[in-house]
Amino acid sequence: MKLRSLCLTILLLTLCPGGSQPLWGQAPAVDAAKVKTRRPDAAKKTDAPDPFLDPASGRFSLNRTLEFAKQLAQGNYGNRARLFQAYEKRGVDFPGSPANLQALQSAGAEPDFLNIIKRIALPYVPPAPTVVTTGTIVVSCVPSPASKPFSGSPECEIALGKRAPVATRDGKFTFEGVEPGEVALEVSKAGFVTQSRSVRVQARSISAPAITLEPNAETRIVMGKSWLAEVWKALGAGDRGAGLQEISASGSATLFDTAGADSRWDIVAKLSEKATSTLELKFPAGQSAMTLECRVGASCRLNKASGGFGGRGKRKIPLSDDDASILLKEFRRIHLGNMISRLTGPEVRVTSSDTRPSGVRSIQLESNDETYEVEVGVNMLIGSVLAKSKLGGDSYQVVYADYVKLAENAQYPRRTETRLQTGKRGIRIEFAGPVTRIG
After folding, report:
1. Of 176, 251, 280, 367, which residue is 20 to 30 A from 428 by alpha carbon distance?
2. pTM of the model
3. Rounded distance, CA 322 to CA 325, Å?
4. In 34-145, which ranges are E strands?
5. What CATH number belongs to 135-214?
6. Is residue 315 over pLDDT 50?
7. What are phi and psi of 286, to 5 degrees?
């Protein structure tokens, strides 16, 4: 053992002179001059690649790019060059569409970053133009001209097909995206008749139906009452026509008998409901022929002058006493003052009204015995009255024309004419001189 220990000590002193540690596992010294230089490209790589710069990490999405843009704008991203390099290497997975570029600008993308995105973005293909396959309907609705003062609001309600009804604005409403074909349209308004019609719709075209609404029965009655009030005011008729019942005038009278033959006379008329009324007929030569005298509370009487209807000896007037009496009585009954009194009676009521294409207004009234259709001109003066009996009597029409002004702004027609519709008998009175009030 002692000999073995001695041998180990001698060995250590030989290997480690001066007490140094042995170079366990160390390669022996190499002469640098004898070492051959290796090419750089042959050197062994020891650094791992940066995943952020590696194309294998995939393209950047739009959402991530927006986040980077915000960080750059806020100064919260450190290595701009590294970020830009990563985008150059990896690219993006979205197109450079106007919408995407606008989103990046809104996020605060700086110009350099935005230019990189524009260059590396996927190609942008604009969408194909949308092919319009539907049509448009522009509906307008207005009350009929004469009913406008009674229509209230100008708006109406429109229902198109199965769509919920909608209210117009300024009388119009536009329906868009309507499928081509026939579609039902319904227009309604309070106080007016609901109208329905079918509208043809074509793709990429506009249909513009204009609906004129007609008043319903209730509104027509309101219109008629309002128009009559204007008529009485324009005529200056007073209470139930009293202002036009006391009249004095002269002119001519043409009487038509049952055969339709006419004879012309001079006439002097004094019409009164308070005193005796007289209608005096004369031959043009001046000889008095007959006078119809009607006393208050009594029946009328026809007084004939001497010589009868002969006139100038041999001439015979084709007019019987009955015809003369009937026609003169008829004129007294239907002259304007008395006609207004009948039309304003307590039992008379307005049943409807209408407007003709010519602008003439028609007002329908009804009493217990008769129906009346009163035509009123644009000047609100009565043009005619058509009366029909409800009891089987004759129907007749009276025409009033050529109005003249009387005192106190009243107006009276110079010409009054009536024909019984069941025959040819009739009378035409034309006042040539002044028409004055009595009393």
Report:
1. 367
2. 0.65
3. 5
4. 135-143
5. 2.60.40.1120
6. no
7. 110, -10
Tokens representing residue 66 in the block? 């927006």
Rounded mean pLDDT of 337-357? 93
Q: Say how far apart CA 7 and CA 12 lie, in whole Å.
A: 9
Sign of the CA dihedral running 404, 408, 409, 410? negative
| Residue 47 pLDDT | 65
Q: How far apart are CA 60 and CA 84, in angstroms?
A: 12
3.30.300.30, 3.40.50.720, 3.40.50.970, 2.50.20.10: CATH of 225-437: 2.50.20.10
CA distances (Å), 331 to each of 50, 279, 290, 300, 396, in order?
A: 121, 9, 15, 12, 12
Indicate the domain borders of the chain.
51-120, 135-214, 225-437
388/316 Cα distance (integer angstroms): 35
Largest CA distance in the chain: 206
Q: What is the DSSP string of 303-368?
A: EEPTTTT--TTT---S--HHHHHHHHHHHHHHSHHHHHHHHT-TT-EEEEEEE-TTS-EEEEEE-S
* Burial classification of residue 156, based on how many CB atoms lie within 10 Å of its CB (0-12 exposed, 13-18 middle, 19 or more buried): buried
C-alpha to C-alpha distance for 267 and 252, rounded to whole angstroms: 5
Pairing of strands 262-271, 247-256: antiparallel
| Straight-line distance from the first to the last Cα atom of the chain, in angstroms, rounded to the nearest whole number | 181
Amino acid letter, 216: N
Q: What is the DSSP letter of 259?
A: T
Q: Are 431 and 250 in contact (CB under 8 A)?
A: yes
pLDDT of residue 77: 85
- Asked if 370 and 388 touch (Cβ cutoff 8 Å), the reply is yes
Q: What is the DSSP string of 216-274?
A: -HHHHHHHHHHHHHHHHHHHT--GGGGGGTSEEEEEEEEEE-TTS-EEEEEEEEEE-SS
**Average pLDDT value for residue range 220-230:** 96
Q: Two tokens at 132?
A: 């319009």
> Rg (Cα) of the chain, in Å, rounded?
56
Domains 135-214 and 225-437 share a fold: no
**pLDDT tens digits, one per residue of 31-79:** 545 545 555 444 455 567 889 999 999 999 999 999 999 999 998 888 8
Average pLDDT over residues 323-349: 89
Q: Are strands 135-143 and 206-207 parallel, antiparallel or unpaired?
A: parallel
Which residues share a beta bridge with 175? Answer: 137
